[in-house]
Amino acid sequence: QQQVKQSPQSLIVQKGGISIINCAYENTAFDYFPWYQQFPGKGPALLIAIRPDVSEKKEGRFTISFNKSAKQFSLHIMDSQPGDSATYFCAAQTGSARQLTFGSGTQLTVLP
Amino acid sequence: DARVTQTPRDKVTEMGQEVTMRCQPILGHNTVFWYRQTMMQGLELLAYFRNRAPLDDSGMPKDRFSAEMPDATLATLKIQPSEPRDSAVYFCASGSQGFGELFFGEGSRLTVL
Questions:
Q1: With 90 as the cut, is the pLDDT of residue B2 above it?
Q2: Which pLDDT value is given to residue A1?
Q3: Interacting residues of B103 by C-beta distance below 8 A, sequence separation 6+
Q4: What pLDDT shows up at residue B99?
Q5: Residues of A in contact with B31 (CB under 8 A)
Q6: Is the pLDDT of residue B87 over 60?
Q7: Fold topology of A4-111
Q8: Which of A4, A99, A100, A102 would you mutate first to test chain B, the one with the most B CBs within 10 A?
Q9: Distance from CA of A95 to the nearest CA of B (A)
């Protein structure tokens, strides 16, 4: 059972554009939602994370929007740059457990 | 610069051989995870340790996979016997208890012929 559904599978954006990746979860016990960024040949690295008590968190060009009632959250990358080209994973965690459940990933390509 | 260290980075082996992957978590982290990444299945959790004790290995094929933490500085993932379907990138990650960042190693790419 896939507990975190991520879309789209791939995304191509022009430099300077906005990249949007969406995730939906089923388990209402999830209470920590991070996004990880992975470059080829590297391990995933934390990009930004949110707790469900806030609806939005912004760090530089990266913003998480969170809709608790809809059980959805999204990553917005403003002014996308070629260096942002990577695979992005949403994830979710419950307070009682430490392990992350990952979405299927989105391969983002930002064209110069 | 604290980092999770994994060895080997690349391993090519033949079906039926034993494979051991090693991980050195970041000093002071008390939770260690093994994930497997494939194109088809994405990132799958195989095993999870807290304070060296195994808490969850439900994602691991028990008949051929085993995970241990002999001490706080070493986690191992063993496959015996290996099969072609085990070909994947295996990641180790460590973190502190509670919410917060998981730090991933660079992975061990396994190819079983």
A1: no
A2: 46
A3: B2, B3, B4, B26, B29, B93, B94, B95
A4: 67
A5: 98
A6: yes
A7: Immunoglobulin-like (2.60.40)
A8: A99
A9: 7
